[in-house]
Amino acid sequence: MHSPSFVLLAALFAAFPAAAQNVSLQGMMGSKALLVINGGRPRALAPGESAQGVKVISTGADQAVVLADGKQLTLRVGATPVNVSGTGNSRIVLTADARGHFVTGGSINGKTVEFMVDTGATALAIGHAEADRIGLDYQSGRPVGLRTANGIVRGWQIHVDKVRVGNVTVHNVETVVTPIPMPFVLLGNSFLNHFSMRREGSQMTLEKRG
Asked: Which segment of the chain is annotated as a signal peptide (predicted)?
């Protein structure tokens, strides 16, 4: 027979499930989001439903807005898991995909984009079609020549007001807009230099400086 104190502790743990450490969107089932929380089995949750400290706020064709650890996050199908624990607004934790790339959702000036970390890129780089979609006024920027396999092409250098990844925002980020189609926005050193970087296996941690 369990003691009263053991029963009380068990009830408390049942009432307050452990907060999620990371969460990803694996797919959609109608209006339900198929979430993987802390590497567990996929859970299908409709707007308003919760599991392991994650509540689904709304869903769309390939994305879901969730509330986790007091933070509202926009998850996209196929993006790397979003870390929702840690040190508030100063740390980003990314997990490599099957090809070893660090791909994550985020936003530029409040508009949702898909980033890929590129430590070899001097600046944040975005294709002109994506720049048009999110409303960047790049043609008033400084014309620059960009070297490609097919020679030099014309691009534009600008600064964007706000780049957000996870729960961390960097302001006034140097950006190059290129006419070359790009599947991702390259998260280059004009953003990464604001962080100290540590990689352990398939995980990369960016800690904001100062």
From this structure: 1-20
